[in-house]
Design goal:
mainly alpha, binds heme C, single chain, Cytochrome Bc1 Complex, Chain D, domain 2, disordered N terminus, 178 residues, 51% helix
């Protein structure tokens, strides 16, 4: 039986449209590859129908924001680990204190810091939190006051001060009982 397949004349015995390797290849393409792409296209078509249109984002968080009462207070997690002074500095202070922009005492410029350090940590912290001269208030933003204090200490200690790194006050008994 298999010997019949060796010459082309004999393959003509077969009925059906596939007679040459090229036709065989085309048959493979049309019977396998094309349906696969058709399915992919169909799936894509179905999926894109469910894509949210602009302004119709229904993620739970987004919905929550949309239906939130006006005037709600953002509650920060009081137990979240405090950012380091270096992190706060690199995020919020470096823009001015890195380059000395707007007349800021540069991060590593002892001469610009020594007189300021002499005023003591509390005075420097107050300046940072409330603002001073060309520096706007640094408090009330993404970092809480203790974290701003840590950035003050980070800069001051890099210029000769020996301030202790501030931490949160120990939790009150009521808070600890929760
Ligand atoms: C918009 C620029 C700017 C940014 C941002 C900025 N500062 Fe300042 N900072 C200044 C300038 C300018 C001065 C000098 C103010 C003066 O003495 O008139 C200064 C001074 C200070 C002083 C010395 C205050 C004193 O009483 O002598 C401290 C401490 C300080 N900055 C801390 C910080 C910390 C911490 C951050 C980041 C959380 C920060 N600054 C971000 C511009 C900036």
């Amino acid at each position: 039986m298999s010997a019949n397949h060796q010459t082309s004349e004999h393959t003509e015995d077969h009925t059906g449209p596939v007679k040459t390797p090229k036709q065989f290849l085309l048959m493979i393409i049309f019977s396998f590859v094309v349906p696969v792409f058709a399915i992919i296209g169909l799936a894509y078509f179905v999926v894109t129908q469910f894509k949210p249109i602009a302004g119709a984002n229904n993620e739970p968080k987004v919905v929550e924001q949309r239906i939130a009462k006006i005037g709600t207070v953002e509650v920060k997690d009081g137990n979240a680990p405090l950012a380091t002074g270096e992190k706060v500095y690199a995020t919020q202070c470096i823009a001015c204190h890195g380059s000395g922009a707007a007349g800021a005492p540069k991060y590593q410029e002892k001469g610009a810091w020594s007189a300021r350090i002499g005023k003591g940590y509390e005075a420097l912290l107050t300046s940072a939190l409330k603002g001073k001269g060309n520096m706007g208030a640094q408090g009330g933003g993404d970092f809480d006051d203790v974290e701003i204090g840590r950035a003050v200490v980070f800069m001051a200690n890099a210029n000769g001060a020996k301030f202790a790194i501030p931490d949160r006050p120990a939790p009150t008994p009521e808070a600890a009982a929760k």
